[in-house]
Amino acid sequence: MNIHEYQAKELMRSYGIPVPKGGLATTPSEARQVAQSLGGERFVVKAQVHAGGRGKAGGVKVVSGVDGVAQAAEQIIGMTLVTHQTGPEGKLVRKVWVEQATDIDRELYLAVTLDRSRERLAVMASPDGGMDIEEVAAKTPERIFTTHLDPGQPLWGFQARKLLFGCGVQGPALRQGSALMEALVRLAWEKEASLVEINPLVLTGEGKLIALDAKINFDDSALFRHPEIAELKDPDEADPLERKAHAYGLNYVRLNGNVGTMVNGAGLAMATMDVIKMAGAEPANFLDAGGGANEEMITKGFEIILGDPNVKAILINIFGGILRCDVLASGVVAAAKNLDVKVPLVVRLEGTNHEEGSRILAQSGLDFTVAQSMADAAQKIAAVVGAA
Ligand code: GDP
Ligand code: MN
Prior knowledge:
By secondary structure, the protein is α+β, with helices and mostly antiparallel strands. Helices cover 36% and strands 25% of the residues. The strands form five sheets. Strands 7, 8, 9, 10, 11 and 12 form a six-stranded antiparallel sheet that branches. It has a four-stranded antiparallel sheet with strand order 1-6-2-3, covered by helices on one side. A four-stranded parallel sheet has the order 14-16-17-18, sandwiched between helices. Helix 5 crosses helix 6 and helix 11 packs parallel to helix 12. The mean pLDDT is 94.
């Protein structure tokens, strides 16, 4: 689960990490009031959406005076922000965070993330904060410094200093930086975050470190242990298709590709996404129709998959066990007719009653491509979308 920058900053503040003073606003006049109560001359007005890259897209404005704040809020609230993380449809901005502007000397990068291959938390820092860290990682990876935590251990001072030296931090900021990193690690550990990122972490003209941006991802599976975090969920930010699928009781995750997938069983669904990628194509979703899915669930699954305009073809991969292949085939035929499915369908059926299932598909009069194996299905779907 993602939270907004203002929520992440509040959480960081509660761990003693310095963040600028600010307040939330949903209208320009509220933004003006926030600025008035904060005091000062220069302010930053920041769109609150679950996406990075807001600065380049016009969602972050540094302004002077309370009039400047009201003007910037007028521009930003209600805009559809399109950044490299929102997809082409963008995100509607409903609220802004107004804070006192910070005098920036240098912009650093700092993050705590779960390194799944090493099975431990990693702390990463770079002197090249503020811009796309992905670009730094691709072009000058030697400018990102990483250290791993031993299980159950805190971040030790020598580890923090190694990272800070790498970022060129000196003097009193070293001690402050060590404490800040230690607090960030504690936050990630205690709240079971998969990513805690500060980009930029700035060094001010006075030599102080402040978190100017804040991003936190939480492990959904651990949220039941953290009701105070689960409460921070913003329903406006959920993908509409994921929300609908959830209401239908379908296990669906939207992805960026163009091959829709309908599969029974989470493991088979994961394997299906793998073979699609290995064939050179990109899955548009994960969808586990469930072991006991019936015709109704299949219809709902189609409705969700087809709700994504990127979907150019659908791969149906079913291993008939509890969900028999003939039931699935009838469901597919009925749903395809009901919903007037226009995209090509590739079907792979195996297991209980698969002969009967294949016969139902063949006699339906609809245009199915029947695959003989998973690899065959992946090749055929990749050919259909022109990725083979
Ligand atoms: P992002 O683009 O979504 O990552 O949004 P950020 O919160 O990182 O802001 C983008 C950029 O705006 C930062 O890298 C800074 O260069 C600039 N910025 C943000 N806050 C301030 C501020 O208080 N003072 C100044 N001078 N620049 C700021
Ligand atoms: Mn940022």
